[in-house]
Amino acid sequence: METVDVLVAGAGLAGLRTASLLAGQGFDVLVCERRARLDSGIRTTGIFVRRTFEDFPLPQRCLGPAVRRVVLYPPSLRAPVELVSTRDEYRVADMAGIYSAALGQARQAGARVRLGVSYPPAGVAARFTIGADGARSTVARRLGLDVNRHFIIGAEEEYPVTGGARPPTFHCVLDPRLAPGYLAWLVDDGQRAHVGLAGRPERLAGPLPRLLGSFAAEFPNVPAPAGPVRRRGGPIPIGGVLRRIACPGGLLVGDAAGAVSPLTAGGLDPCLRMAQLAAAVTGDYLRTGDASALRRHYDGRALRARFRTRLLLRQILSRIGTPGTVEAAFRLLRTPPGRAAAARLMFGDGSFPDIRVFPSVVADE
Ligand SMILES: Cc1cc2nc3c(=O)[nH]c(=O)nc-3n(C[C@H](O)[C@H](O)[C@H](O)COP(=O)(O)OP(=O)(O)OC[C@H]3O[C@@H](n4cnc5c(N)ncnc54)[C@H](O)[C@@H]3O)c2cc1C
């Protein structure tokens, strides 16, 4: 039997970052990932928000051109609301490159990463297990921690474009018939286009690929592919951070912990920030054996409380059932206060609470 300090299940961004940080603290870290290659089975669009590319050292070569322009459309697609920021707000990443760089960093820090190996790996005993195994976490079930119950499901097509949008633009269509509880999107940064939609599975008007096909055919701004079209998709947990995310046997991080903005469904910034906290509390726990500090510092209820407004807005968004309601909301969005509120939402500085929220953990490091 092989014994390790920390077993990390899942080599997404949450798992690889947590593994790097723990290996950097000197622990014996093993990552098991069921995918045989990290450049296959990619699920995310890969839109990074400003706070993330400002705060984390993402490889610049993997980030597409900056996007400052957002256009919001009602179901009729008439009189859209255009928002333009003075700052670089979004960059769409080449996710295969991002995962490859994160894998390299984890290995360089000393973590061992086994691809093509599902959790639980045979013949491995771990002092502590990190569940970074995504929205439907097996680790959460095995450790008796909370599991995600509220999802939207998303699908998108991604392809190279020539002569794409000038300026790079993020188009968002709010149409409850097409994407109930969320939106349909086109991001065209001039180099690549991502055309997708996501919604509550029980309210989708048909199979996702069919809905996506009709959106791609009918939305006027969709550019023609200039190369191979890749398809991505998967569930996105939108119920907010789960309450019980740690116990003496392990903890959850990233999508496994429900760490996705309930409103925007962005999970890349939360998973990177939460990985920092997870690595700090795990290191502390393995050194001291103080399980009560682990629960106190890695408390889903406390993190969840920071998302009250977003959870409330998510519930409102989920209930909007008719195009008429959205058209009425757009009348408000076109007013100066409405535009200001939309700009705050799309370009705001809010993000997942980072480790500074837990000063005692930082002090312990
Ligand atoms: C269609 C779509 C588009 C999205 N677009 C964006 C976006 O543009 N911006 C944004 O911020 N967020 C986006 N999100 C959300 C974001 O991608 C996720 O929140 C983020 O990638 C979560 O990272 P993670 O490491 O926690 O989980 P994941 O990236 O899901 O990684 C989990 C890993 O665990 C592995 N795994 C699962 N089970 C096991 C097991 N039993 N054993 C071993 N390994 C296992 C999986 O193969 C996977 O590699 C999107 C999500 C979807 C579905």
What does it look like?
Helices cover 34% and strands 24% of the residues. The protein is of the alpha/beta class and 365 residues long. It has a single domain, classed as 3-Layer(bba) Sandwich (FAD/NAD(P)-binding domain), CATH 3.50.50.60. The protein has a 7-stranded mixed beta sheet, sandwiched between helices. Strands 8-2-1-9-16-15 form a 6-stranded mixed beta sheet. It has a 3-stranded antiparallel beta sheet with strand order 3-7-4. Helix 1 runs parallel beside helix 3 and helix 6 packs antiparallel against helix 7. The radius of gyration is 20 Å and the shape is globular. The C terminus is likely disordered. It binds flavin-adenine dinucleotide.
Annotate the secondary structure layout.
Layout: E1 2-9, H1 13-24, E2 29-33, E3 47-49, H2 50-55, E4 63-67, E5 69-73, E6 81-84, E7 90-93, H3 95-109, E8 112-115, E9 124-131, H4 138-143, E10 151-160, E11 169-173, E12 184-188, E13 192-199, H5 208-218, E14 230-237, E15 246-247, E16 250-252, H6 268-288, H7 291-297, H8 300-305, H9 308-319, H10 323-333, H11 336-347, H12 359-364
Parallel strand pairs: 1-2, 1-9, 2-8, 5-11, 9-16
Antiparallel strand pairs: 3-7, 4-7, 5-6, 10-13, 10-14, 11-12, 12-13, 15-16
Helix pairs in contact: 1-3, 1-6, 6-7
The structure holds flavin-adenine dinucleotide.
Flavin-adenine dinucleotide (FAD) binds next to helix 1, strand 2, strand 10, strand 14 and helix 6.
